[in-house]
Design goal:
Elements (H helix, E strand, L loop, with lengths): L3 H38 L14
Length: 55
């Protein structure tokens, strides 16, 4: 029982950090997708997209 608080708090902190980073990445990914959609809607295209011969 002497180390229980340390062990449980360490696991709790690790879980908190893991969840926080996962949420941060998810929210940031959604923001980047919206940003890309806005740029593509305004006519700006990605370099990785190949243009057709007619364009």
């Amino acid at each position: 029982m002497t180390h229980a608080f340390y062990v449980y708090s360490s696991y709790g902190f690790a879980a908190f950090v893991t969840i926080a980073v996962t949420l941060w990445i998810w929210v940031d990914g959604r923001a980047r997708q919206k940003e890309l959609a806005a740029l593509e809607a305004s006519g700006i295209r990605r370099r990785s997209v190949r243009l057709k011969d007619s364009e």
